[in-house]
Amino acid sequence: MKAVVLVGGVGTRLRPITETIPKPLVWLMDRPSLDHVLDHLSSHGVHEVVLSSSYLESTFHAFIEARHGDPRITWITETEPLGTGGAIVSALDRLGDEPFLALNGDILTDLDLTAMIALHRERHAAATIALHHVEDARPFGLVPTDAEGRVLEFREKPTERVPGDVNAGTYVLEPAVLRSWPSGTNLSIEREIFPALIAAGHPVHGFLSDAYWLDLGTPRQYLQAHFDLLDGRVGGASYPAPFVADGARVHLRAHLGRWVVVGRGAEVGPDAEIDDSVLHPNAVVEAGARIVGSILGPRARVGAGATVRDCALAEAASVEPGATLQGERVSAGRRVGGSSKDPARPM
Predict the structure, then answer these.
(1) Beta bridge mates, 260
(2) What's the pLDDT band for 341 if we cut at 50, 70, 90?
(3) CATH homologous superfamily of domain 2-218?
(4) Average pLDDT over every residue of 74-90
(5) Is it the case that residue 340 has pLDDT exceeding 50?
(6) Helix, strand, coil proportions of the chain in percent (round to 5)?
(7) What are the residues whose beta carbons fall under 8 Å from the beta carbon of 68, sequence distance 6 or more?
(8) Any idea which of 1-5, 98-102, 104-108, 206-210 has the lowest mean pLDDT?
(9) pLDDT the model gives residue 138
(10) Residues carrying CATH 2.160.10.10, the chain
(11) Where in the chain is the domain with CATH 3.90.550.10?
């Protein structure tokens, strides 16, 4: 089985963390989130994966060189963004004639891909779409199906809070029904390809499950993914809570709440207090600092006695000693607080 993992987004909603790191390579617990995606694919028999992006491409090459084992990765350089559909169509010559998986690279899920592929073959579908039931479909749009599970249409995002089944960003696709689309063209699989397949009468089916599913696209959701992993809510994953990675240094007098992740090489000083937060590799929290509900990017630093609440600090950002920051986003390399004249941006 082969797969296309969609990693081309620029991660606008997760900025400033994604100013220097593509969203799929932002750390999740103990490694880049894309590692979790690839390991999940490998556990369901996927041995070859195609990746493509035009955003911060060099960082992906470093990731690919560092990764070993299944699945084998093929890289396609996008000279310009191709969208979700364009990236898939442009990879068809690497995928052969058998059905393949396509999925978003910024989703944390324990979806049973083996069962989804089996349903696709059983129904002789042209496309099978993973569906997730939500109580509020406004951020997603709705994907209604008939009694047999066949997708009827893709509806726009509702303006009122309504429950329903939404596109969960994982697909099984038949190459033959996609070959009429031009390669190298920016296309949306949700807004262009799937509606066209449905209109042409191709069997497009939904695969509704109660699997864990979370889009990592915002700071709040990104933090929630860590909390859920620490609570054991994601199948196949087990981490102690709080989680302190190998090589991190936490002073004996520091306080770590249950929902805390301290990344590789990070340092937490004496009398520092950290709750509901994630520290990326080599982040530093100095003595007596207070961190709550925040993300500290790689090499970010919070000075002694500072308070940081509901903030996102990008790579190498810093907060001066004794400063108080709430609800701010601090860009890469910026220094804020105290006498700094470099303002942060509101969350």
Answers:
(1) 277
(2) very low
(3) Spore Coat Polysaccharide Biosynthesis Protein SpsA; Chain A (3.90.550.10)
(4) 82
(5) no
(6) 20, 30, 50
(7) none
(8) 104-108
(9) 82
(10) 243-346
(11) 2-218
Adjacent-strand bridge partners of 278:
261, 295
Within 13 Å, how many C-alpha atoms sit on residue 27's CB side? Answer: 22
Pick the CATH number of 243-346 from 1.10.3720.10, 3.40.190.10, 2.160.10.10, 2.60.260.20: 2.160.10.10
From the list 94, 90, 35, the residue with the least C-alpha distance to 63 is 35
CA dihedral of residues 204, 207, 212, 216 (deg, nearest 10): 0
Q: Which of 4-18, 76-90, 173-187 shows the highest mean pLDDT?
A: 173-187
Q: In angstroms, what CA-CA distances link 123 with 45, 172, 205, 222, 343?
A: 20, 12, 8, 35, 56
Mean pLDDT of the chain, nearest integer: 90
Alpha-carbon distance 188 to 30, whole Å?
32
Q: What mean pLDDT is predicted for residues 168-193?
A: 91
Residue keyed to tokens 């009827």 = 152
Q: What is the pTM of this model?
A: 0.89
Q: Which tokens in the block code for residue 17?
A: 């963390």
Give the C-alpha distances (Å, rounded to integers) separating 199 from 145, 190, 196. Answer: 14, 13, 5
User: Would the CA dihedral through 231, 308, 310, 10 be positive or negative?
Assistant: negative
Minimal CA–CA distance to 46: which of 88, 7, 99, 109? 99
Helix (H/G/I), strand (E/B), else coil: 35: helix
Mean pLDDT of 150-177: 89
pLDDT value, residue 56: 65
